[in-house]
Amino acid sequence: MKKLRLCFLWHMHQPYYKDDLDGSYHMPWVYLHGLKDYYELPYYHNIYTKLKGTYNLVPSLLVQLKDYEKTDVDDTFLRLMQKNVAELTKIEKGVVIPQLFMANYKNMVKPLRRYKELYDRKGDTAIFDTGAINYSDDEIIDMQVLYLISWCGVFTRQKLDIINKLISKGRHFTHEEKIQLIDSLAEFTSEIVPLYKQLQDKGLIEVSATPFYHPILPLLLEPKSAKEALPSISMASIGTDFSQDAKYHVESAIEYYEKEFGKKPEGMWPAEGSISEKAAALFAENGVKWIASDEDVLAGSIGKDLRNKQNRQTLYKKHIFESTHGDINIFFRDKELSDLIGFTYSGWDASKAVDDFMEKLSDIYDSCDFSPIVPVILDGENAWEFYEENANPFFELLYSRLSSCNWVETLTMSEASRCNTPEHRPAKIRAGSWIYANFTTWMGHQEKNDAWKLLSEVHQRFQRNSNSDNKAQIQKELYVAEGSDWFWWYGDDHFSLQSDTFDKLFRGHVANIYKLMNEKVPADVTKPIKKIHKTGLLKTPSTTFTPVLDGRVSSFYEWIAAGKFDLKFDSGAMTASGNTLQLLYFGFDKDRLYLRIDGAFSRVINMDYELEAEITTDKTRIFSFSITDASVEKSNSESCTMEVFEAAINLSELGDEIDNADIVFRLKKGRTVVEIAPLYNTVQIYFKHDFEKDWLC
What we know:
Blueprint: E1 4-12, E2 18-19, E3 24-25, H1 29-38, H2 40-47, E4 53-57, H3 59-67, H4 76-81, H5 90-99, H6 105-109, H7 113-119, H8 137-150, H9 154-159, H10 161-169, H11 175-189, H12 192-201, E5 205-208, H13 217-221, H14 225-229, H15 243-261, H16 277-285, E6 290-294, H17 295-302, H18 309-315, E7 318-323, E8 326-333, H19 335-344, H20 350-367, E9 373-379, H21 392-403, E10 408-410, H22 413-417, E11 423-424, H23 446-464, H24 471-481, H25 484-488, H26 499-516, H27 523-526, E12 537-539, E13 563-566, E14 581-588, E15 592-599, E16 609-616, E17 620-626, E18 632-633, E19 637-641, E20 645-650, E21 660-669, E22 672-677, E23 683-686, H28 691-696
Parallel strand pairs: 1-4, 1-9, 1-10, 4-5, 6-8, 7-11
Antiparallel strand pairs: 2-3, 7-8, 12-13, 13-14, 14-15, 15-20, 16-17, 16-21, 18-19, 19-20, 21-22, 21-23
Helix pairs in contact: 7-8, 8-11, 20-21, 23-26, 24-26
């Protein structure tokens, strides 16, 4: 009987945040995602035992998780969290308090009433200035406790009684209760990796790995593979050979995995789905049976447009590449299905999202005259805070539907590599990654190339002085600095409030190598590489105003008082999001909120597209606007699209006594979301602004 063979792969990864010379972790994201995500996703297999899945654990992540099994881990944030608030210095408060605002407001902050109450006092204060807000010691303790709880997943909360007791109490927590919570969370962290081993031993999941410190393997093996993927790329100046380091990352990952799980991994997810023919050969040489990448890499390799229905069937075959070290299976992810879960369904009702996913699977099933392999591969940790309840309603419904579906079978990647789906043997592999099918996320921009230059120079220096007494330490610092994440945050293609910290960490690893070689740290290493600091807000409104809503900019002065927000400031690469929604102008008068969006509307106007504005004040409300050149008036809103999109929403529809609003826009065609803006953040609008004070200043 024909079956659709659905293969989920969830990739779990964080950069190496530890400075091994000072012994400190400088960001707590491994710890926080451990509480919320690393236990959460695999635990579903204890409930839905018919379901199979593959979980990719990067060795450098596992190393860090082990440290967080103890409360005395030297993590700057956790160390300050355990300190009595009354003893915190002003500088220490300036470190710990901003971190307490790093949680999704809608899905993590708002459900905890006291947390929302304290969070809302931030107003329009910049996040790194929040340490100066006049919170009392008791209020800071409340925020600390509730921040940790907000980062606990559904199953974490079910497992730890103390969390439910603290949620019931709601406020006025004590220092002792905070310490008890931190102790319980450390003990919980020690159960994360054993859960994966138990599930793998039961045959419910497969655990795969990534080269140790998550490097872009093709660039280490042969930097000019960047040109193979994109001939016009601006190459970094690399005057050294990283190929032996590439071998280390693969071999040491296999060795570490075997120590943790009692056997070697059958498969590996190359960092960022980055593959090349040389990378495939290196994996095969080390006994790896399968690797994976993106459908666009397959399209580039075989010279076919896989969006074409006639070619689409090829994607769902079993791909085997004959490398110089033997055959290796390569899975190419279905980009649409993967990105729908990663970026789109978070804004949908769970039942609607699951219906849509199952319908798309049904379309694939009907289009193939064989049992298709459908790889759905995505980040396993960063998407869920954008869903309600850490995506629990979505997963419960999806996994329930899949468990009872007689035409779908879920398989691990290794099981799929052994199934009888027809083979497809690509004659070559064009180097590329799952982001744009090239390497521009890690090379090409001047900042990224500057980072490669520093890395290349220190690598060359070490090769000339490889007999150092600190050789092992130096090599580790080099391997860490070769990780993909440092290069990810350079340039203007990704946004993080902490991009400066990533820059410091990367240059810190490079500086450590010089120190370990007893050499002076070059001046270039001490200077920040990161020069582009992006924020979405370009301008706040200067006064109230009332524009004409005709889809045109009627005069220069019509929107001159408006605030401006770059809707693309945080656009990541792993998204199906387009470029229709580009620049937002916003403002209000005493009755209405006004929104104008500039962008490429000519290609969507009068073509059954709809713009959805999700606005959160006291609660979340959805306003929908047809993208049509006719003026559309409703009881609560008005809109028109011509050269630009213009709309008005009655303030009375946003709640009583509103102070601020958070807005996300979604461009939709039918039930499919084709674009989200901003992608990871919200547009924040403050209605209690003192315009007269601004004018006097």
